[in-house]
C-alpha cells in the first residue's frame, strides 16, 4: 500500500491543499472525494454518523478512524477513545489534530476489549468480501466487553445496478453485488486497487446471527444507507 490517502490528508492538514482524491469502482465512473469533507465536524456529518456518536458509550475503539473526526468529538464528550487505521498518514494527522490515543493497527490485530466499536463511513467496507464477513464479525465480537456494542453503517447498493426501466442487471453468476474493486488516485498517483464491501442490512443481520450477534436497525439514511447496532446475543 502506497498510502496515497494518507499523503492527501497530510497535504491538506499542512496547508498544501491543491486538489482532491479521485475515486472509482469497477461499476462506477470517477468521482471526486473532497479533502475538506474528511476534516468535518459534528454539525457537517450525516445523520447516521451523528446518531452513532450519540449512542457511543464507555471505552470506544474507532476503527478506520481517518483524520479522527469521530474520535475528537467523543473525546470532547469525555469518553476514552482508541483510534486505529492502517494508513500511517491518517494516524499522523489524527494525532496532530489532538486524538490522544491513535495507532497504526489492522483491526484483526487488535486485542483489547471495548464497550463500543465504531465502524463508520461504510464500516462494512473493511470486510472486503462476503466470504470474509463471518471472520471479521467473530473477531469484532471478541473485542466486546460483556454489554458492549458495535455501531456500523453501510448501504444497499442494488440501486447502482438498475436500468432505466427499473430492472436489475446483477449478474447472478458473479459474486455478491456489494463486492467492489475500489480505486483511488491523487495528484496523478494511483493506489493499488482494494476490495471494498457494501452490505445490505438483511445480509448483515443473517451473518450476525451465524456468529451469535444480535443485529438491530437503528436508523435509515436518505440514500439506501443505514446504521446498525450489533450486540452479544443473550
Shape: globular
Number of beta-strand segments? 12
Mean pLDDT: 95
Tell me the helix content.
Answer: 10-25%
Tell me the strand percentage band: 25-35%
Biggest sheet overview: 7 strands, mixed
Give a description of the structure:
The chain is α/β, with parallel strands linked by helices and 234 residues long. Helices cover 24% and strands 31% of the residues. The protein has six helices and twelve strands. The strands form two sheets. A seven-stranded mixed beta sheet has the order 5-4-3-6-7-12-11, sandwiched between helices. Helix 1 runs parallel beside helix 4.
Short description:
By secondary structure, the chain is α/β, with parallel strands linked by helices. The protein has 6 helices and 12 strands.
Q: What is the strand and helix layout of this fold?
A:
Blueprint: H1 4-13, E1 21-25, E2 28-33, H2 47-55, E3 59-63, H3 69-76, E4 80-85, H4 88-97, E5 102-104, E6 114-119, H5 133-142, E7 144-155, E8 179-186, E9 189-190, E10 194-197, H6 201-210, E11 213-220, E12 225-232
Parallel strand pairs: 3-4, 3-6, 4-5, 6-7
Antiparallel strand pairs: 1-2, 1-8, 7-12, 8-9, 8-10, 11-12
Amino acid at each position: 500500500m502506497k498510502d496515497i490517502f494518507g499523503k492527501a490528508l497530510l497535504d491538506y492538514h499542512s496547508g498544501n491543499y491543491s486538489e482532491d482524491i479521485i475515486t472509482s469502482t469497477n461499476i462506477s465512473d470517477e468521482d471526486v472525494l473532497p479533502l475538506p469533507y474528511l476534516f468535518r465536524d459534528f454539525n457537517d456529518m450525516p445523520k447516521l454518523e451523528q446518531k452513532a456518536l450519540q449512542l457511543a458509550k464507555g471505552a470506544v475503539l474507532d476503527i478506520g478512524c481517518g483524520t479522527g473526526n469521530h474520535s475528537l468529538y467523543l473525546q470532547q464528550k469525555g469518553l476514552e477513545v482508541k483510534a486505529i487505521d492502517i494508513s500511517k498518514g491518517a494516524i499522523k494527522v489524527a494525532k496532530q489534530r489532538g486524538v490522544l490515543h491513535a495507532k497504526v493497527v489492522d483491526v484483526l490485530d487488535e486485542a483489547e476489549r471495548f464497550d463500543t466499536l465504531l465502524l463508520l463511513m461504510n464500516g462494512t467496507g473493511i470486510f472486503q468480501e462476503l466470504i470474509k464477513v463471518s471472520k471479521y464479525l467473530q473477531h469484532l465480537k471478541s473485542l466486546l466487553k460483556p454489554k458492549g456494542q458495535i455501531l456500523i453503517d453501510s448501504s444497499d447498493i442494488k440501486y447502482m445496478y438498475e436500468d432505466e426501466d427499473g430492472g436489475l442487471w446483477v449478474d447472478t453468476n458473479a459474486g455478491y453485488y456489494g463486492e467492489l474493486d475500489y480505486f483511488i488516485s491523487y495528484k496523478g498517483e494511483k493506489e493499488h486497487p482494494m476490495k471494498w464491501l457494501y452490505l445490505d442490512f438483511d445480509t448483515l443481520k443473517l451473518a450476525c446471527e451465524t456468529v451469535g450477534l444480535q443485529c438491530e436497525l437503528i436508523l435509515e439514511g436518505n440514500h439506501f444507507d443505514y446504521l446498525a447496532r450489533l450486540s452479544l446475543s443473550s
